[in-house]
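Entry 14. Two folds queued back to back today. First construct below, sequence then C-alpha cells.
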Amino acid sequence: MIIGLISDTHGLVRPDVHTALAGVDLILHAGDVGGTDVLDELALIAPVRAVFGNTDPVDEPGLELAIDITLGGLRVHVSHGHEVGRVTARALASAYDADLIVYGHTHRQRVDRVGGRIVVNPGAAGARRYDLEASVGRVTIEGGVVDVSLVGLAP
C-alpha cells in the first residue's frame, strides 16, 4: 500500500504534485487545504481524505477534524498539529496513540521517530513561504515494513 501525504496547499495544487503522488492508493491531506477545488484536483490522482487546518473555514465541506484509520495494519492519525500548542514530534506522539502520525502547520518537512512510532510532516505543498522547499510525502507499507520518503516539488 502506498499513501500520499500532503499539507498546507493553501488553495494551490502545483502541477508536479500529480507526478510526485502518482500511483498512490490514498492521499491524506493534513490541513490548510484552501478550498474544495484542491480536494477535487487531488481526487484526480487518488481518493482523498483531509482535515481542517487553522486557516480552513469551519464549514468547509469535505474536511474532518481528525482522521484515525488503520492502513496496511498500521494505525494512522492525521491532524493539522496546531491543536497541540507548540508543534513537536514529541507533543504529537504524546497526544495521539498511533503508529504513524501525520501533521502539517509548520510548513517544515520532517520525519521523526518517537518511541518506535513515526511522526511525519510532508512540508507545505502550496505557495512557497519562509524560504522552505515545497514538498509532499509518500508512505509505503509492505509486509509490516514502513518506508517514508519526502518528495521535493519544483519552485
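Second construct, same run, same settings:
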Amino acid sequence: MTTSTPTRSRVHHLAATCCVLALLAGACGSDGADTQPAGTTATTMAMDDDMAMTMNMGDPTATPADDVDGAALARGEFALLDTRPQGYDDVAGTAVIARSPAGTTVTLELSGLPADVDYIAHVHAEPCTPNNGGPHYQFDVGGATTPPNEIHLAFTSDADGTGFMTAENHAVAGIDAQALVVHPSEFLDNKLACVDFVEDEPGAVAEMVANGA
C-alpha cells in the first residue's frame, strides 16, 4: 500500500494533530472502557514543536515497524469487536509492533473503513479476549494517559476506505504491551477492532526487554 505521498502525509498529520488537541481537552479516554460522550468537540489550542514531538501520535512517513533494524517483531490481524459501530462489518487489516535498541514502533494498516473518518488506536495491556484489550499499556503504570507514556496512533481514512499509520516511542515496551485497539475518534466507547500481537520469534521480545535496549 502506497501511503507516503505528500497529500496523504498532510492529511494524516492533520488528523494526528486534531486528535492530540482532543486528547489534551480530555476527549480521549485511557481506561479499559475508553468511554466518551459522542459528539464531543475538541478545544482548539496551539502546540509548539516540542509539544508536537512529545505528543507523537504517528507519522505516515516513519519507518514501518516491520522494517526497523534489529527489532523483535510481533504482529497480528485485526478481529472485529461486538462494540463496533454500524457500518464497520467489512473492516480488515494488520498491525506490527517492533521493539529495538531505538525504542518501540507500531504500524497499522486497515481497509474497509468508511472514507474520510478520523480514528485513534491505542496499545493495550491485555489480550483482545475477553476484555477487548483491557486498559491502555503504560510505560509508567498510573502515570500520564498521553504519549509518550502511552502509545497512540491517530489517522484519517482515505477516500477508498484505507488507513495507515506508524507511531514511534523512544522507550522499549514491556511484554505486557499485548494488543492494539482501534475506534473512531468521535466514538471512543465503540471499539471496532483489536489485534493480538504474536511474536515472529518466540522469546525475542522478552530478550529485548531484558537487555534493557
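Quick look at the second one. Residues 6-210 form a domain with the Immunoglobulin-like fold (CATH 2.60.40.200). The helical segments are 6-24, 49-54, 204-210.
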